[in-house]
Amino acid sequence: MKKNNLWLLLIILALSACDQELPTQLSYKDIYGYEYSSKVPVSNGSFFIKKAGNLTFQESSVTDSTATYAITTTGVDPNFTTARIGGVIDPNACVFSCMYKTTKEISPVINLDVSKATAAANMGTMAVSSEWKEYTWDLGTSQGLIATNAWGGVGSYFKMTLKIASPTVPATIELKDLKFRKRTLTEEAAVNEGLWLTLTSAGGGDFSNFQDLTSSEGGFNVITRNVYSFKLLKNTNYLRTLPLARAFLPGEQNHLKFDYKCDIQTALVFFVNVPNFVGPTAISQLPASSGWSTIDYDFTGSVDFPQSSYTANPLQISFYYPGAETPTMFIRGMHFYVK
């Protein structure tokens, strides 16, 4: 009997030891980082680097909403992929933002979902900077990259490729505060400002090498909209816009705004209601500029624009300049607006 009791005791001890070695069952919070709720939590928009290709990185100063990364590129198309988020991003948080330093100019390409080719977009450049500098890029709302790819739910992440010139020479980059945020009041005002013009080479003349640079220089950017370049061949040359999307708002037809670059001074003249032609409306000279310059014209009273007659017809834009040179003109963000 005592022998049987001894065996029973040994069996109980063995089972107890095995029970202690069983893994602890993971809770919902262990897996997702927050307690279970029928209401999915809203993410704070912050992202953290998880893995990388052709670059090395060190993470420091980590909090729930930010981290600082010291990055060294090691090859062609260096890139990083973020960790998945545990909450839903506010659909209005459409502006990618971060702080950066870099020893080389960077042309970022973002891909919100690496399984979708449509989820990628080129972004504006990060200029060389030895001091912390803010970088922002607007990916849009209803017609933007985020909405059209149904991105931003639990588990969302993105891949960013940091395209640089001469990638065999390493670049040293610092990034922090990687996040998606809502537009500021100034950004929101710019988005809602004006009747934006789309330029086209169809029906134009006396220019060459017309290029729509929006995808290479802009991606989806509601601040600058479309970007174009074309080479001026003669003193009298022109190109046209697509038909306007709507009629002018009261007073809107009197204010034209855009950015330009051109190494030779030119003057812009345009006609409205093509092919019936109202105008020409002479506009002041555009001084030579190697960098982006903003032109904001007020021609109130200089021409009588019927407010509602141009939705079916384009505008014609001409650039005049002296000499026989063939300068290249760059235009972006051309629009009428109410001042």
How does CATH name the architecture of the largest domain?
Sandwich
Tertiary shape: elongated
Tell me the number of structural domains: 2
Overall number of strands: 21
Main sheet makeup:
6 strands, antiparallel
Low-confidence stretches: none
Q: Would you tell me which CATH topology of the largest domain applies?
A: Jelly Rolls
Residue share in β-strands = 35-45%
Helicity, as a percent range? 10-25%
The sequence of SSEs as H and E is HHEEEEEEEEHEEHEEEHEEEEEEEE
Structural class: mainly beta
Q: Separation of termini? A: 102 Å
Radius of gyration over all CA atoms, rounded: 29 Å
Q: How many DSSP helices?
A: 5
Taking all residues together, what is the mean pLDDT?
81
What is the CATH H-level superfamily of the largest domain?
Galactose-binding lectin
CATH class label of the largest domain: Mainly Beta
Briefly characterize the structure.
The chain has 339 residues and is mainly β.
Describe the structure.
With 339 residues, the protein is mainly β. It folds into two domains: 49-185, Sandwich (Jelly Rolls), CATH 2.60.120; 193-336, Sandwich (Jelly Rolls). Helices cover 12% and strands 40% of the residues. The protein contains five helices and 21 strands. It has helices at residues 2-21, 28-32, 145-148, 185-191, 214-218, and strands at residues 49-53, 55-60, 68-73, 79-82, 95-102, 107-111, 120-122, 129-138, 159-163, 172-181, 195-196, 199-205, 207-212, 227-232, 237-241, 255-262, 266-272, 278-286, 289-298, 316-320, 328-336. The strands form four sheets. Strands 11, 13, 14, 16, 19 and 21 form a six-stranded antiparallel beta sheet that branches. Strands 1-4-9-6-7 form a five-stranded antiparallel beta sheet. The longest helix has 20 residues, at 2-21. The radius of gyration is 29 Å and the shape is elongated. It starts with a helix and ends with a strand.
